[in-house]
Amino acid sequence: MTQDVYTYLQDNRDNLLKKLEEFLSIPSISTDRTYKKDVLQAGHFVADYLKDIGFKQVEIKETGGHPLVYGEWLEAEGAPTVLFYGHYDVQPADPYELWDSDPFSPEIRDGKLFARGASDDKGQVFMHLAVFEAFMKTEGKLPINVKIIIEGEEEIGSENLYPFLAENQNMLTADFALISDSGMVEKGQPTMLYGLKGFTGLEVTVQGPNRDLHSGLYGGAVKNPVMALSHLIASLKHENEQVAVAGFYDGVEALKEEERQLMNEAPIEDYVKTTGVPTTVPEEGYTVNEHIMARPTLEINGLYGGYQGEGTKTIIPSSATAKITCRLVPGQDPTVIQDLIIQHLKTRAPKGVTLDVKPEPLSAKAYKVDPDHPLIQKAADSLAKAFNKETVFVRLGGSIPVVEQLDQLFKIPVVLLGFGTPEDNLHSPNESFPLDHYDKGLDVLINFYNEVAH
Amino acid sequence: MTQDVYTYLQDNRDNLLKKLEEFLSIPSISTDRTYKKDVLQAGHFVADYLKDIGFKQVEIKETGGHPLVYGEWLEAEGAPTVLFYGHYDVQPADPYELWDSDPFSPEIRDGKLFARGASDDKGQVFMHLAVFEAFMKTEGKLPINVKIIIEGEEEIGSENLYPFLAENQNMLTADFALISDSGMVEKGQPTMLYGLKGFTGLEVTVQGPNRDLHSGLYGGAVKNPVMALSHLIASLKHENEQVAVAGFYDGVEALKEEERQLMNEAPIEDYVKTTGVPTTVPEEGYTVNEHIMARPTLEINGLYGGYQGEGTKTIIPSSATAKITCRLVPGQDPTVIQDLIIQHLKTRAPKGVTLDVKPEPLSAKAYKVDPDHPLIQKAADSLAKAFNKETVFVRLGGSIPVVEQLDQLFKIPVVLLGFGTPEDNLHSPNESFPLDHYDKGLDVLINFYNEVAH
Ligand SMILES: [Zn+2]
Ligand SMILES: [Zn+2]
């Protein structure tokens, strides 16, 4: 070899960026059937690129919806196998008038690449493909074995991905999974995301009289459904933000002092400034960082009953409804938590009203990998080296359903190597991706693939 | 005299009913400016009738809105003076297609007179005029002195009546007030309504973040406004229906055993059947009848915050609002109660959110007259005699603002002699008034006017 991988990527930077721009120019909006052909074209772009690099078994797998692309390269004898996941579909771009340049005519301004999908997730998928190309063109091989799935339905719920994963477990066997579809806590701050929260929810309706009643003529005879629901909802959580549902915290891992420290060191946004609240209010005994990252939450997403217009309408409302969701941590089973809440509510249902509970059908377990796991350490080191800054370790209050699926199905670590920034405007006008994250990210991937090969 | 008052009314029944139908044919809908002339015409009908009977000082008093009719007959030397109040305006009649006969073409079917205003309040006002006519035509005089106000804006809030009352207190001096604008608890069941509840209210908004937030990314940092509001609302009332606001019951008269008995004997609707609730839920220590009639209530008329659509939206809502009203009993001051609730809420406002309270500008004190008062007893006896059934004594959970005004301004007893029934469809299509209530009601009025003369 006369050229190393790093140099190859530097020397071919313009061509590769041009190729990425070509990828980003395809309006692969999965939610809009008008773009069905474009979504397919983006799938072909990925499949063709994989074939060009030298991947085998490259296939456009038909699903009930948009196809997914599968490919593999398994000639790194003795080296581990990674299952790499990403998506080539994008969010819609409207309102178009809020974009400073056309969402599907990529443009570089102020060191950022502007286009729908630049960060989520075409840009980050492309980085892996470029690095694979560089390895093949310089060393003639990849450092590890790669199985790759790039789907076209992430932005619409991955409905067809999950059955595909379940039905092809043998084909997809790997030592670990890898996803680059997330971001860093701050621009330039290498971030190791090692945990995500799970999710469950339900809707509860308190049914009172068969119609709204005159509060003068019926007040004193009939239980007020909104008052009854307020009592029920208030009983779910203490004022100190602890959830009051019996058994809710059973099985939740205690936070190790060392992990608390990791979390509290992580730079997070100034919530008072960004949300306008008078003060933050974490669970008693925990910091905001700890609660957001590692403690379960129970939130009321909506509550409504009775009159909502201007002024006064003296009624006893016929019914009242609340929408409740929880973010869960390792040790909590979504179905069990759902049942505990339902039991809690049913036990406390006052007489004079009836309770109707609709469990939310979607749920997910929390995901967490040991931050000391060698793969995570290697990922963190690769990030630190390329960005020349110590990596922070964080867990996220949100959920990424595919991570939970991969975890549950394959029982392998899932490494989340995200290169986005909080300023990327994901799912909004003017989505962008900073070019220095792109450049340094390529170095991270080279470092990481090399490291895990041993 | 060759003819007595009763006989006069019997002999002239057809003519008088025809005259009432003429009155009911005028579409005096006060809320709709299109009917301004008709409202005025109905006022003239009343004024002309009073003049024909022999009332003096009959005047159509201009107000900022529809005029009110005033008249007096003060020649019953040594006898007391009544201030009689009623209204000649009516509710709109739409939806017209739900009427079985034209709302302004009165029709008698099944022993009922169908027309808008038949019961509320033209029919009942007319009964007094007919009785006055009968007295004048047979005895040449009325048994007592009469000052009469019939307004044209009751159905739109009596905005101009209250200033008129306040500005003309000397002219309107009387020994008691009399109103026939209510009903009986059951058809054929003479009912003495001797108390009404007062009213106050407020709206409270809990303001959290400046926009709806992602529940995964912000849950644990930010107080949930809907949860905060649920805690506040739940704190207002115990589960046994007692209001938990400190001072709320201060000054409320204890119910005498004898009054409790009166209330519990009153036939009231079968609330489980009419409203579909599993069971009624009165305040602990009181029956439904007692709570409805004589105990104050606090109701949530509406509550809303966050997502209300189908399915799930995982947000922390930006704010939540509740509308609260109370029905008050004698001894409670609306302004004091409003302040107590506001204080209660403000004291309990949790950190992390701000509270915005809007006091409801309209309020009214409760009204109650001693059921043993001679006037009330005479009214009850007059009812019992004409309907040949013992009179029940009830208080109402609702409010009639003009009663409170008369009470406050003139400090005289207000006698509520109502002849309507629960089946009259007030404010609804097919309003009607049973002719036997009309006929017996005339006898009641003769009895009553004769009785109070002594
Ligand atoms: Zn994505
Ligand atoms: Zn009325």
From TrEMBL, chains A, B:
The coiled-coil segments of this chain are none
A Pfam family the protein falls into = Peptidase_M20
Which residues belong to any copy of the Peptidase M20 dimerisation domain? 194-352
| A Gene Ontology BP annotation from the UniProt entry | proteolysis
Q: Which UniProt keywords apply?
A: Hydrolase, Metal-binding, Protease
Q: Name one GO molecular function term.
A: peptidase activity
**Alphabetical list of NCBIfam families matching this protein:** PRK07907.1 (NF005914), PRK08201.1 (NF006053), PRK09104.1 (NF006579)
What protein is this chain from?
A: Dipeptidase
What is the source species? Salipaludibacillus agaradhaerens
Print the organism lineage: Bacteria, Bacillati, Bacillota, Bacilli, Bacillales
